[in-house]
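Example for tutorial group B:
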């Protein structure tokens, strides 16, 4: 869980229960091995490591031709239907999205230290380069999302300004006119 927290959670979300369920599935398939480690003063733990069969499956998966580009993007499905709400609610939605992306981007700041620490356990230090690439993707993705959210805010505000400008002038003096 600690390794997941320090690395994968930045681009793949999972609950602790899901991680352990997946590890059990991998163990049943023979793709990981489990070593029981008794501990004093804290709960015992299992340490999982990839097996030869698991490495073969990993390499097969990496070579299967699926680029991993998903045409399903939940945020775009939600935005597609935002016209059902008020402009003000949607401006707040995009402001919240932008704030979330800013926080997420900030959370990536310590990741290079995690990569450096975990790469110390690698036989092939070049593997850490690919971890760095995932962090770079995350940074760029969050930056793009922040810029896009701001662009959406600007468009919604400009449309409101144009609509307000096109409204006929109404005298403040109700008796005039």
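The residue assignment follows.
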């Amino acid at each position: 869980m600690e390794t997941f927290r320090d690395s994968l959670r930045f681009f793949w979300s999972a609950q602790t229960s899901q991680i352990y369920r997946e590890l059990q599935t991998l163990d049943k398939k023979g793709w990981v091995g489990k070593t029981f480690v008794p501990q004093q003063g804290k709960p015992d733990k299992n340490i999982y490591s990839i097996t030869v069969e698991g490495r073969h499956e990993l390499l097969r998966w990496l070579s299967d031709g699926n680029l991993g580009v998903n045409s399903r993007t939940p945020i775009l499905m939600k935005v597609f239907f935002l016209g059902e709400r008020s402009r003000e609610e949607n401006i707040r939605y995009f402001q919240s999205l932008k704030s979330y992306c800013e926080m997420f981007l900030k959370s990536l700041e310590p990741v290079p230290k995690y990569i450096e620490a975990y790469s110390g356990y690698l036989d092939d230090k070049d593997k850490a380069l690919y971890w760095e690439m995932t962090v770079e993707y995350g940074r760029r993705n969050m930056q793009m999302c922040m810029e896009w959210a701001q662009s959406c805010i600007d468009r919604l505000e400009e449309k409101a300004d144009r609509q307000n400008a096109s409204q006929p002038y109404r005298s403040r003096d109700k008796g005039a006119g």
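The chain has a mean pLDDT of 86. Compare this with the pattern of hydrophobic and polar residues in the output above.
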